[in-house]
């Protein structure tokens, strides 16, 4: 089986793993703060994917949120960047609105991407040929839209963060309407279907955006750091993702 098809199968199997484990109840721990949580299922799902990938592809490398590959210094070879559960707070509080996010890069170049909305059974994915799909539906390039009438996603915490409060509020006031769904992967994925016009946040990790970046860029969107710089796959950074015209406008607003 091709890498893309195999990876898709792994992601679907991982979602079955999550649903089975959820039914047994969650063990929740906090990480850096009381609202930075991890569960036994986040860790178990990453281990599930890690073991699958290593058994089929022992020479591939893996970076995952819950402990794998944090010391990786370069993007040589085949690199899987994995978030076993993106939106853990939604997972814990709502048991829905979370995703598995997997981006595969070869020598630093996008190969394929998968974001699976686990409870809705919706898979956003892209094959090495460059087409992007929502389940079986091939998606069109992202359309431009005016900021003033668009729905954009912002990380809600950014609005209350002192240093950047002014720029986040200015952007929120200029946008048509603002949402904060709590899963970076799903917020990026929804740009591909046109349900969200932009996603803007500070401080994400590579596993939060590795798959979404591929999906959005392949449909003509632009993804950069909050200051408009190229994304480094191995570094934490802020993110602005949108159609090129809106991207430019947002970068100007938040850096004014
Ligand atoms: P996570 O659920 O995988 O941790 C929430 O706005 C989004 O930001 C989620 O995609 C979440 O990913 C991500 N995020 C990154 N760092 C975080 C942190 N320290 N605490 C909570 N969410 C974080
Ligand atoms: Ca986390
Ligand atoms: Ca995440
Ligand atoms: Ca996670």
TrEMBL record:
<dbReference type="GO" id="GO:0006020">
    <property type="term" value="P:inositol metabolic process"/>
</dbReference>
<dbReference type="GO" id="GO:0007165">
    <property type="term" value="P:signal transduction"/>
</dbReference>
<feature type="binding site">
    <location>
        <position position="208"/>
    </location>
    <ligand>
        <name>Mg(2+)</name>
    </ligand>
</feature>
<dbReference type="InterPro" id="IPR020550">
    <property type="entry name" value="Inositol_monophosphatase_CS"/>
</dbReference>
<feature type="binding site">
    <location>
        <position position="83"/>
    </location>
    <ligand>
        <name>Mg(2+)</name>
    </ligand>
</feature>
<feature type="binding site">
    <location>
        <position position="65"/>
    </location>
    <ligand>
        <name>Mg(2+)</name>
    </ligand>
</feature>
<protein>
    <recommendedName>
        <fullName>inositol-phosphate phosphatase</fullName>
        <ecNumber>3.1.3.25</ecNumber>
    </recommendedName>
</protein>
<dbReference type="GO" id="GO:0008934">
    <property type="term" value="F:inositol monophosphate 1-phosphatase activity"/>
</dbReference>
<dbReference type="GO" id="GO:0046872">
    <property type="term" value="F:metal ion binding"/>
</dbReference>
<dbReference type="InterPro" id="IPR000760">
    <property type="entry name" value="Inositol_monophosphatase-like"/>
</dbReference>
<dbReference type="GO" id="GO:0046854">
    <property type="term" value="P:phosphatidylinositol phosphate biosynthetic process"/>
</dbReference>
<dbReference type="Pfam" id="PF00459">
    <property type="entry name" value="Inositol_P"/>
</dbReference>
<keyword id="KW-0460">Magnesium</keyword>
<feature type="binding site">
    <location>
        <position position="86"/>
    </location>
    <ligand>
        <name>Mg(2+)</name>
    </ligand>
</feature>
<keyword id="KW-0378">Hydrolase</keyword>
<keyword id="KW-0479">Metal-binding</keyword>
<dbReference type="InterPro" id="IPR020583">
    <property type="entry name" value="Inositol_monoP_metal-BS"/>
</dbReference>
<feature type="binding site">
    <location>
        <position position="85"/>
    </location>
    <ligand>
        <name>Mg(2+)</name>
    </ligand>
</feature>
């Amino acid at each position: 089986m091709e890498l893309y098809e195999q990876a898709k199968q792994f992601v679907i199997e991982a979602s079955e793993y999550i649903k089975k484990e959820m039914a047994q109840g969650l063990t929740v721990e906090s990480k850096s703060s009381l609202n930075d949580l991890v569960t036994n299922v986040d860790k178990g799902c990453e281990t599930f994917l890690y073991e699958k990938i290593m058994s089929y592809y022992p020479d591939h490398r893996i970076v995952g949120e819950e402990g794998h590959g944090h010391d990786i210094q370069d993007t040589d070879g085949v690199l899987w960047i994995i978030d076993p559960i993106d939106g853990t707070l939604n997972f814990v509080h709502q048991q829905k609105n979370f995703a598995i996010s997997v981006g595969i890069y070869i020598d630093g170049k996008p190969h394929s991407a998968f974001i699976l909305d686990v409870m809705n059974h919706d898979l956003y994915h892209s094959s090495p040929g460059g087409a992007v799909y929502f389940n079986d539906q091939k998606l069109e390039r992202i359309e431009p839209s005016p900021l003033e009438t668009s729905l954009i996603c912002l990380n809600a915490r950014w609005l209350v963060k002192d240093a950047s409060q002014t720029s986040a509020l200015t952007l929120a006031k200029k946008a048509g309407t603002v949402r904060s769904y709590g899963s970076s992967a799903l917020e990026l994925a929804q740009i591909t279907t046109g349900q969200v016009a932009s996603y803007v946040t500070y401080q994400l990790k590579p596993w939060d955006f590795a798959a979404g970046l591929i999906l959005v860029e392949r449909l003509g969107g632009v993804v950069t750091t909050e200051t408009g710089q190229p994304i480094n796959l191995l570094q934490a950074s802020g993110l602005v993702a949108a159609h090129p015209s809106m991207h430019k406008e947002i970068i100007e607003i938040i850096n004014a």
